[in-house]
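call fold(seq) -> tokens
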Amino acid sequence: MSIKHSLSFPILTYETATSYVSRLTRYCGLASPNDFCLDHGFRWQDFVRGDDILFDKMAAIGGANAEDMKHWAIRTVDRQSFLTAGEYVTKKSLVRTRVRVCPKCLVEGRKLRGRYGAYRRHLWHFLSMRSCAIHETPLMNVEPEKYTIRNYDFCKVIERH
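ret:
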């Protein structure tokens, strides 16, 4: 079954799949990605783990490129490793459940694309990345949400701060 879409909401360069869904959720006027995913017949937690079928489905819903989404996503391989941008990485090398940002990227994204322009880059997840590759600005740690799953809702975390 193919999904027809009327949206043209692209995934942005280096954007994680969860960031994309967070932005798309706000664009559609919903409160959380969990609500958005349930409305489309699947669980947010399954999307966060990195299910190819769900990436295809979400890309079709939003009018994004599914291959780009899959490429920049951080997908769970097993309890200790992930796949992102075609590379296997260990759990110890990533910061998945805490949000780190380049404040200049966020400001620039909003200026260029408006309210839904700030997004999470896949490189910000790497523990070894201490500063933004574009602005050479130190990455800032954002206070984590109480429940881990809420930290994947990038827009809500950023709006709170």
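The chain is about 35% helix and 10% strand.
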